[in-house]
Each structure stands twice: as C-alpha cells, then as structure tokens.
Amino acid sequence: MFKGTYTAIVTPFRNKQIDEPALNKLIHLQVRGGVDGIVPVGTTGESPTVSYEEHIQLIALSVKFAAKRIKVVAGSGGNSTAEAVYLTRESEKAGADGSLQVAPYYNKPNQEGLYQHFLEVARCTSLPILLYSIPSRCGIEIGVETIKRLARKCPNVIGIKEAGGNPDRVSQLRAALGPQFVILSGDDGLTLSFMALGAQGVVSVASNLIPRQLTQMVNLFAAGKVKAALKIHERYYPLFKDLFLETNPTPIKAALAMQGLIQEEYRLPLVPMNPRNREILAATLRACGLLK
Predict the structure, then answer these.
(1) Inter-residue contact 93 to 125 (CB < 8 Å)
(2) Distance (Å, whole) CA 222 – CA 214
C-alpha cells in the first residue's frame, strides 16, 4: 500500500480561483505517466493559503479527476488538531484513499504532543495515514519512538513521508518498525539513497514535470536494476536541485507555466521567482529536454 511514485501535485490558480481544467489536465498527465498516486493540498499544493472550502474542494476534484485510476492521498494535516481532524474526515467523505499528516508546524509540540495529535487524527478516520516529518518546515522532527508508539496503537498509521534529508533515519525507522511499515522519500534527489536503505518510493515534486521518468526510476530500482535507475537519477539530478532554488512550490509552478500547463499564479506570501533564478531553472529545463 502506498509504495512507488506519488506526485505532490501543485494547485493551479487562475484569477485567484482554483483552475479546475488545469488541475484535470495535470492529473490526466500523471495517470498517463504511470504514477501510483497523487498527493493534493500538501506543501506543494499551497495548503497554508487555501481556505477550508477550497481545501476540501481540491481533494474532491482530485478524487473525481483521478477516477480510481491512481490513488489520492489527501494532504489533510494541520498545526491545529481540530483542523486536521476536520479536514481528514472531509477527505474520507470525498473519497480519498489515504491521508498525509504533516507534523504540526509553528507551535512546536513536544513528542508527547505529537503522539496525542496524531492519535486523535487516527481515531477519527478509517483512512490509512502517512505521517509527514519535515523539520525544515515544521521546526520539529517526529521521533522514531513516537512513530513506533503510533504504529502499535493505531493500525491505520501505516507509513511516513520522510523529508528530513537524513538517510540514517530510514535505517532507524526500518529497524524500529519492520518491513511492513511504508517509508517514502520526501526528497527527489535522495530517493535512490533512501530506497537503498529500505524506503519503498517517493512523494515527488519533480514528477509534476516528469511523471513517467520518476516512475521508471523508482520501478527500476525496486526491481534491482540499479544502474538503469541511477542513469535516470543522474540525468535529472540538476532538475531535482533547481526545483528548490527558491521555496517550493514556486519553482515547480514556474516550470509548469513555462511548459504552458498552468498559469503562473501564487497565493501571497509566495511571489514569482527572482529573474536570475528563473533563468537558471529555464536553462536546466532545456538541458533536460523539457523546454525548447
């Protein structure tokens, strides 16, 4: 469950509204690219700046446009437990296949607070839950022992998106939680490193642009074809790096706009890329054969 390639899909806007036709097109391209699923309204989907109504609408639209062809893991976490419970319940009603639960950000609970937070969310839903540890955004890491406690207590806490940038965490998690616990890389550039240590895939930003290539890379590595997977990694590593020239999702939305797939529109406080960084990103897209 939830192994392989999952795209942290962007939220396209047009005139300050959700651009439904663009989202439909993006999801169709993901299906054609062979990804295992999408994650709407996560960090890449600009979750902090959409309203509750828009948040639920985006999940419902994703379920509709995916049409059971790929899985939809709803970004339904929050720094308020009540908010996370509400969004998760609504995601289940909308037909999502699972929930991605980010560590509460800004208020920085201790490990007991994290445990109680995720426990409350897990109790409110029958959806499978992927935890999401990203200390650079949240200021805290979900401790291995906390994850172990949750997995023992809550049968629906089945995995984690690990975005701390530390391959050693994969070894720690695998040793503590066994082979059945799902570990997905939260960083495109570390996917193969993580998989070498026991991760089973990635929640990818780059697959917004290159779903087929990312899927091939992950599947090849999982099949033991390491050299072939590494060849794909090496070709697209400059893209993995330059999609973080500025805060995600600004570069990936700029890249998709360069390809004519979406309008380049953000919600404040996000703003368009610095012109120099845009030039660097465009050059990388051309070098990767993604832009003429």
Answers:
(1) no
(2) 12
What pTM did the predictor assign?
Answer: 0.97
DSSP letter at 214? H
Residues recognised as catalytic: 132, 161
Cβ proximity of 74 and 100 under 8 Å: yes
State the pLDDT confidence band at 1, using cuts at 50, 70 and 90: confident
Compute the CA torsion angle 8, 233, 248, 49 (nearest 10 deg).
Answer: 0
Query: Which residues, in sequence order, are bridge partners of residue 162?
Result: 133, 185
213-256 per-position pLDDT tens digit? 999 999 999 999 999 999 999 999 999 999 999 999 999 999 99
* Coil, helix or strand at residue 201: strand
φ, ψ of residue 183 to 5 degrees: the values are -125, 120
For domain 4-223, give the fold. Answer: TIM Barrel (3.20.20)
Q: What is the separation of C-alpha 197 from the centre of its chain, rounded to a whole number of angstroms?
A: 20
Look at the alpha carbons of 234, 236, 238, 244 in this order and tell me if their dihedral is positive or negative: negative
**CA nearest 117: which of 96, 147, 73, 158?**
147
Cβ-based neighbour number of residue 123 at 10 Å: 11
Domain ranges of the chain: 4-223
Whether pLDDT at 154 is above 90: yes
Query: Hey, is 15 helix, strand or coil?
Result: coil
Per-residue pLDDT tens for 22-67?
Answer: 999 999 999 999 999 999 999 999 999 999 999 999 999 999 999 9
SS3 of 71, please?
A: strand
Query: At a CB cut-off of 8 Å and minimum separation 6, what does 230 contact?
Result: 192
